[in-house]
Amino acid sequence: xxxxxxxxxxxxxxxxxxxxxxxxxxxxxxxxxxxxxxxxxxxxxxxxxxxxxxxxxxxxxxxxxxxxxxxxxxxxxxx
Length: 79
Description:
- By secondary structure, the chain is α+β, with helices and mostly antiparallel strands.
- Helices cover 25% and strands 27% of the residues.
- The longest helix has 9 residues, at 16-24.
- The radius of gyration is 11 Å and the shape is globular.
């Protein structure tokens, strides 16, 4: 699944366009490397998000095309 879509489906970022812009600006990294919005996200990847003056590090637990609001939190684990 694309990185920008994962960020939206998991509700780490509200909108896909905002996720796309964050990736383009270099504020999202996957496994320690800056990643573009089209990067393929897999289970076990570690994402580092630098948004709004804070950093959030998460590990991808599952990848789903759609998720309800209740299930979105189960797609990642905070580190």
